[in-house]
Design brief:
The protein is an alpha+beta fold. The chain contains three helices and two strands. It has a two-stranded parallel ribbon with strand order 1-2.
């Protein structure tokens, strides 16, 4: 989450997708900050869908 905050501080227009094996821990923070969260393990179609959504496509 620290890295995401720093990226957003430097480049607020850059879409961010957080992927983690510790989704339970990160879910609250990600939701509070409006960050897309993709829990591991994930399928390629899930990655593609969340990437498209983050890019606004």
């Amino acid at each position: 989450m620290e890295l995401v905050r720093e990226v957003r501080r430097r480049r607020p227009e850059l879409p961010v997708v957080l992927t983690t094996a510790y989704a339970g821990t990160a879910k609250h923070d990600a939701e509070a900050e409006g960050i897309a969260l993709l829990p591991k393990p994930y399928r390629l179609d899930e990655l593609a869908a969340i990437t498209r959504a983050a890019l606004g496509r």
